Write a sequence for this structure.
């Protein structure tokens, strides 16, 4: 890791403490002493932001006590107090939290005696996670965390009700999601959102990280573009930065506050989110509820884009102070919501509908946020509000299993009572939203219909929901209605919708989308055409972009798989095999990596090796119907019909609607 190297900006050389702030023809920027009173943990580590404080002391002091300022820090002497010899079982390992002879915090595996040196800290309230140094030059994130309020250690997974409900509370050593695996690698999974100007700098050849950043934590330079030299007024922030639109500011917040796939690591303030990320939408069970309510740790951006407010131009800054991260108004007496909704205020060009404060609900005091932004607990102890801004709908709780906050207060009632109460009060107004929820819920559960999705899409005004409904139509990609809708949707102004359409459209019609103005759309079209790589024009920029994304993600199984496929398409078979093996090494329990590697081997007529991979795959994933089907195919090809029949029969038992397995089984009988 690169902690202390000087940070270089064109025209500026910044060391660990001192800033040379004099420029030819421009007066030096006044320095602020690192000893100046501040809540920040270490001003000497943030020399660029320290210069901002010279003119913007109020904003600096607000920021200095924020979660952003404390997103990452080095150890302090007082951290040793938590490492008092306590023991905790986390991820199936008993850890002793202690200090070495010099008083440095460390974690020791009680059974093996292995000692892990603690390097740095993520977060501040309500919990801190201590990162440990790793042999690959990176940092790992143990699931043992320190509750800063209760002053106790806990396991963020064991204490997470969502993890318990999904049966994923315990991971075994060697698995991708175990704290020692690549799934808990800080450099790849966490750092971009906890540092400013972060670069992962992963060297695949040596399997090493040499990560670097401009400043630790989320500082001024992460949310403001620092110019090569000060403007006429002496400010380091460029004039263009001061003219950013609300949407550009919002996209900057979303770059971290979103569950997303990184297409690049080059996002900077002023860029569009969809040029650098693929936003996760509620298309598969378990991640979001069918109504878009957050289920896993999904952060804010998806649910907010799915909301009417997010769709009509309300942004983060309309409710949050960008420096403190807190609210601009109190939630008490609904002042936060009524700052817009009490007087027909125009927000970013959109008229906010006037509403009356509803202080009572069934005799209970409540606030707008209690019903429209319910809280859920993540990481065992961290309460966060959903940003989908739904109507509570007990009817959908009964039909789709989505939670609603009504029974949080009315504990002596049930969903039926709450549904009847709301329907009596609001009548048909709720049906408008139920159309999308029912269509999405049925599709997620595999019991929907294309007509139901098409009907919901035709009535949908929120573009993120249109993209979601299009994504769910992937179950019916070849129907004439879906293809016609996709042809229309590729002209939508929202890149989320265009990308969803590209995922459905017939490949023969995708080539024009390789020139789309947004990388997300180009990327989607490129991978759809990839099996027919000859259809991608030679030298096309999108192919370079696809390779760059795969290389960026190459320290994780999906990136290694993409690198393998790209190499195989270019007939670089040794590189393809190397990347397939890398993907398996990173996640030995993955069914997908082994199945794809087996297909690759079979294509090279290396059937015994392919069979070996599939046997290992089914041993690790005995209940995976697709793996059993692939095993059956290989067994038949190597002349073992009885074993093939048993594998195919198991595939059908596990997944009765697996048509290919049934068809192949019938051929063997």
């Amino acid at each position: 890791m690169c902690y202390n190297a000087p940070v270089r900006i064109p025209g500026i050389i910044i060391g660990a403490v001192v800033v040379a702030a004099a420029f030819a023809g421009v007066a030096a920027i006044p320095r602020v002493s690192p000893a100046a009173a501040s809540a920040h943990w270490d001003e000497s580590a943030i020399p660029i932001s320290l210069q901002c404080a010279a003119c913007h002391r109020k904003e600096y002091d607000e920021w200095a006590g924020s979660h952003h300022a404390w997103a990452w820090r080095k150890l302090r002497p007082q951290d040793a107090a938590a490492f008092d010899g306590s023991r905790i079982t986390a991820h199936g390992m008993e850890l002793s939290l202690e200090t070495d002879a010099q008083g440095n915090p460390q974690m020791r595996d009680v059974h093996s005696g292995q000692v892990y040196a603690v390097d740095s800290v993520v977060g501040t309230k309500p919990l801190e996670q201590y990162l440990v140094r790793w042999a690959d030059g990176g940092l790992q994130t143990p699931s043992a965390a320190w509750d800063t309020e209760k002053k106790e250690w806990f396991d963020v997974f064991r204490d997470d009700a969502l993890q318990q409900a999904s049966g994923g509370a315990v991971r075994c050593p060697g698995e991708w999601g175990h704290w020692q695996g690549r799934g808990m690698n800080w450099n790849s999974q966490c750092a971009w959102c906890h540092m400013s100007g972060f670069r992962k700098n992963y060297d695949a050849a040596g399997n090493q990280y040499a990560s670097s950043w401009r400043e630790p934590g989320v500082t001024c330079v992460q949310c403001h573009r620092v110019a090569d030299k000060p403007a006429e007024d002496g400010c380091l922030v460029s004039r263009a930065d001061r003219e950013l639109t609300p949407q550009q500011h919002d996209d900057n917040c979303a770059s971290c506050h979103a569950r997303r796939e990184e297409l690049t690591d080059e996002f900077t303030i002023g860029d569009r989110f969809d040029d650098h990320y693929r936003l996760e939408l509620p298309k598969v069970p378990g991640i979001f509820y069918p109504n878009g309510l957050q289920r896993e740790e999904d952060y804010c951006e998806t649910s907010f884009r799915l909301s009417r407010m997010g769709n009509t131009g309300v942004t983060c800054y309309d409710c949050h102070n960008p420096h403190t991260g807190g609210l601009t108004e109190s939630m008490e007496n609904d002042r936060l919501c009524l700052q817009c909704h009490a007087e027909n205020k125009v927000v970013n060009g959109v008229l906010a509908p006037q509403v009356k404060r509803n202080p009572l609900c069934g005799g209970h005091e409540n606030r707008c946020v209690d019903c429209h932004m319910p809280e859920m607990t993540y990481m065992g102890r961290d309460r966060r509000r959903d940003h989908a801004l739904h109507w509570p709908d007990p009817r959908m709780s009964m039909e789709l299993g989505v939670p609603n906050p009504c029974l949080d207060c009315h504990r002596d009632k049930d969903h039926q009572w709450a549904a009847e109460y709301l329907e009596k009060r609001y009548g048909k107004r709720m049906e408008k939203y139920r159309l999308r929820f029912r269509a999405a819920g049925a599709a997620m559960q595999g019991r929907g219909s294309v007509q139901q999705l098409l009907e919901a899409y035709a009535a949908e005004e929120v573009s993120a929901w249109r993209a979601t409904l299009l994504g769910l139509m992937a179950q019916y990609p070849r129907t004439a209605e879906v293809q016609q809708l996709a042809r229309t949707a590729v002209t939508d102004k929202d890149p989320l919708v265009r990308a969803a359409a590209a995922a459905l459209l017939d490949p023969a019609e995708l080539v024009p989308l390789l020139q789309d103005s947004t990388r997300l759309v180009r990327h989607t079209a490129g991978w759809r055409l990839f099996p027919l790589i000859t259809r991608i024009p030679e030298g096309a920029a999108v192919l370079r972009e696809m390779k760059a994304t795969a290389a960026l993600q190459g320290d994780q199984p999906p990136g290694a798989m993409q690198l393998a496929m790209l190499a195989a398409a270019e007939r670089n078979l040794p590189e393809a095999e190397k990347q397939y093996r890398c993907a398996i090494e990173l996640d030995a329990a993955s069914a997908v990596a082994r199945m794809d590697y087996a297909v690759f081997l079979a294509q090279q007529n290396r059937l015994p090796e392919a069979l070996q991979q599939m046997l290992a795959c089914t041993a690790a994933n005995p209940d995976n119907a697709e793996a059993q089907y692939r095993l059956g195919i290989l067994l038949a090809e190597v002349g073992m019909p009885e074993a093939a029949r048993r594998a195919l029969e198991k595939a059908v038992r596990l997944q009765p609607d697996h048509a290919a397995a049934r068809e192949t089984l019938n051929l063997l009988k």
About this structure: The two ends are 60 Å apart (CA to CA). Residues 260-441 form one domain. The chain has five domains: 7-71+213-240, 73-193, 260-441, 449-555, 573-669.
